[in-house]
Amino acid sequence: MRYIILAVLLAMPCMVSFAGTESCTTFGRKLVCLGDNEAKVRDRAGKPDRTRQLVNEHGAGVGEQWVYYMNTRPKKVITIDIQRSVVTYISERR
């Protein structure tokens, strides 16, 4: 019993740190995952509805954030961060 409690307590920070993030998301039947390149995202997801520049603590540009507003049921918003032409973050909100 002690080992089960210990395992759950050790796993909790991992669960909290990944809450709201996805390793892959779908655009219709097309899949976009962490590590995919920018060209693959454009091919599978199309042109983003909104883009903004990602900056570091010094204000230097380090990448872009692409936002897609999906007209599915339920409606959802997919956010993809791209740094050095590679997907580094995916979030899906309903």
SSE arrangement:
Blueprint: H1 2-17, E1 24-27, E2 30-33, H2 38-45, E3 50-55, E4 61-70, E5 76-83, E6 86-93
Antiparallel strand pairs: 1-2, 3-4, 4-5, 5-6
Short overview:
By secondary structure, the chain is of the alpha+beta class. The protein has two helices and six strands; from the N terminus they run H-E-E-H-E-E-E-E.
List keywords for this structure.
alpha+beta; four-stranded antiparallel beta sheet; two-stranded antiparallel ribbon; 2 helices; globular
Polypeptide structure, described:
This protein has 94 residues and is an alpha+beta fold. Helix content is 26%, strand content 43%. The protein contains two helices and six strands. The chain has helices at 2-17, 38-45, and strands spanning 24-27, 30-33, 50-55, 61-70, 76-83, 86-93. A four-stranded antiparallel beta sheet has the order 3-4-5-6, with helices on one face. A hairpin with a 5-residue loop joins strand 4 and strand 5 (76-83). The longest helix is centred in the first third of the chain and has 16 residues, at 2-17. The protein is globular, with a radius of gyration of 16 Å. It starts with a helix and ends with a strand. The relative contact order is 0.19. Mean pLDDT is 86; it is low at 12-19.
